């Protein structure tokens, strides 16, 4: 399993996250920082490989990156701190994969229509182009931004089993 979790070096500031995992479900509570995003992306990639969903790794990793970066750029820090808390869940469903980022800022995201060569402001547009379905759900004090990916081909036949322990 060590080869699946080739994590980048953790900077001196560190990354704070709590991870819970069982077959087909990954949940990570974290302080979203620029240092945390690539580490969390690596963890998600490893889980999808273990679950036999290698065909979804790139799309799901891009989605995780974009949704966490949106938290970093567009949500207010927790009062009294400079941190932005979020919960990432990745869940294997029958015939699909759900990626969801919950943050605690009630401002809903807006789909921007920036130019294709723009360096920022295209995150949700990218997510909507890779995902089979995506959206946002409000809850008291925050929102869930989610994307669903249909499981196709050989991956659909692996629906009941995971490769190795997660």
From TrEMBL:
Please give the Gene3D superfamilies that the UniProt record associates with this protein: Histidine kinase-like ATPase, C-terminal domain
Q: Which CDD domains match?
A: HATPase_RsbW-like (cd16936)
Which InterPro entries does this entry report, sorted A to Z? Anti-sigma-factor_SerPK, HATPase_C_sf, HATPase_dom
**Pfam families in alphabetical order:** HATPase_c_2
Q: Superkingdom, according to UniProt? A: Bacteria
Please state every residue range assigned to the domain named Histidine kinase/HSP90-like ATPase: 33-146
- What are the entry keywords? Kinase, Serine/threonine-protein kinase, Transferase
Keyword presence, Transferase: yes
UniProt KW Transferase keyword: yes
**Which interval of the chain is the signal sequence?**
none
Q: What name appears for this protein in its UniProt entry? A: Histidine kinase/HSP90-like ATPase domain-containing protein
Q: Per the UniProt entry, what species is this protein from, by scientific name? A: Streptomyces graminofaciens
